[in-house]
């Protein structure tokens, strides 16, 4: 048995944390402290670092609400992060050490959201097995529509007609560094009209994140006669181009704007990526599926992978004893 020590993240750990994220086999730029902390006023950070003697072997991006700790609620995905050399037995012991630490800190439950497999640089589902051993409950499952760009993907006739319509209407695609037009003229009005909701990121926040991560956060807009009519915000990691926001101006006739835009992104801009992630089509914690949105993504050739969310009682650390033969 190895001896693991769990510590709370401190500001002095900034460089150490980011260096670890940079070499982990299951991390993206969202786990960088600069991304996690752009909205630190909204969350009580409770991120953890796990050491084997003096060596950092794992981190857990997290925040605390009363007696519950969450995979950081300001991030799309999360989970236990570790380097490529770690073994399954070590992850089980590390997870046990985390549950013991949380239990001693009067934390009753840990809510852990996973990192979808397409974001792994190497197979990294050790934590899912540890969660099973600890009798964690699956409390949410989202469906992601994903293209494997290393394979052939057939676009439906409906999408091709939309692309032809966009060409006929002289639509133009531009990558922009400024998010203001998309946010204020397309995204915010549409979210308010359809869902009485707002974007997760304010305009000021997305502009700030663009400055910090200029190569990872990109904005593509569609114009007709120099007027914006649609766009998407893309979060780009090593293997995946993920569409964080997708929206078009509903006041326009159907000009094929999004069909045109996504054919361009898939075939031209991100063709060297392994995966293109359209994102989820779910609401109500995965219990409802937007059929029309899901169909639109699938008509580009996308298929489904799932993103799981678990809840585990910290007292269950005892279930991780005596699991090895």
List the defining traits of the structure above.
325 residues, alpha+beta, ten-stranded mixed sheet, 9 helices, 16 strands, 30% strand, elongated
Describe the structure.
By secondary structure, this protein is of the alpha+beta class. It is 30% helix and 30% strand. It contains nine helices and 16 strands. The strands form three sheets. Strands 4-5-7-16-8-13-12-11-10-9 form a ten-stranded mixed beta sheet. Strands 1-2-3-6 form a four-stranded antiparallel beta sheet, with helices on both faces. It starts with a strand and ends in a 12-residue tail after the last strand.
Write the layout of secondary structure elements.
Blueprint: E1 4-8, H1 14-23, H2 33-36, E2 48-52, E3 55-60, E4 62-65, E5 68-71, E6 81-82, H3 88-104, E7 109-113, H4 126-133, E8 137-148, H5 157-168, E9 172-176, H6 180-195, H7 203-212, E10 217-224, E11 227-236, E12 240-248, H8 257-269, E13 275-280, E14 282-283, E15 288-289, H9 291-298, E16 303-313
Parallel strand pairs: 5-7, 12-13
Antiparallel strand pairs: 1-2, 2-3, 3-6, 4-5, 7-16, 8-13, 8-16, 9-10, 10-11, 11-12, 14-15
Helix pairs in contact: 3-4, 5-8
């Amino acid at each position: 048995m190895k001896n693991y020590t769990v510590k709370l993240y401190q500001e002095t750990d900034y460089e150490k944390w980011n260096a670890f994220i940079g070499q982990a086999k299951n991390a993206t730029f969202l786990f960088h402290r600069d991304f996690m902390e752009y909205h630190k006023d909204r969350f009580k950070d409770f991120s953890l670092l796990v050491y084997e003697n003096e060596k950092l072997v794992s981190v857990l991006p997290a925040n605390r609400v009363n007696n519950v700790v969450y995979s950081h609620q300001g991030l799309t995905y999360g989970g236990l992060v570790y380097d490529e050399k770690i073994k399954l037995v070590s992850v089980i012991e590390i997870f046990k050490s985390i549950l013991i630490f949380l239990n001693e800190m009067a934390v009753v439950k840990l809510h852990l959201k996973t990192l979808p497999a397409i974001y792994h640089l190497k197979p990294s589902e050790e934590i899912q097995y540890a969660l099973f051993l600890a009798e964690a409950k699956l409390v949410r499952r989202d469906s992601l529509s994903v293209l494997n760009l290393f394979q052939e993907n057939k676009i439906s006739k409906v999408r091709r007609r939309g692309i032809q319509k966009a060409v006929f209407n002289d639509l133009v695609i531009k990558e922009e560094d400024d998010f203001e037009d998309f946010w204020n003229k397309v995204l915010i009005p549409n979210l308010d009209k359809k869902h009485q909701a707002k974007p997760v990121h304010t305009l000021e926040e997305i502009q700030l994140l663009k400055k910090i991560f200029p190569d990872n956060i990109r904005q593509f807009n569609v114009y007709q006669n120099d007027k914006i009519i649609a766009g998407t915000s893309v979060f780009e990691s090593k293997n995946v181009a993920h569409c964080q926001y997708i929206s078009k101006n509903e006041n326009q006739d159907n000009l094929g704007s999004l069909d045109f835009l996504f054919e361009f992104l898939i075939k031209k801009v991100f063709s060297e990526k392994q995966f293109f992630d359209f994102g989820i089509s779910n609401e109500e914690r995965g219990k409802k599926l937007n059929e029309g949105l899901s169909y639109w993504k699938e008509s580009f050739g996308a298929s489904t992978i799932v993103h799981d969310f678990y809840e585990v009682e910290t007292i269950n650390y005892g279930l991780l004893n005596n699991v090895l033969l």
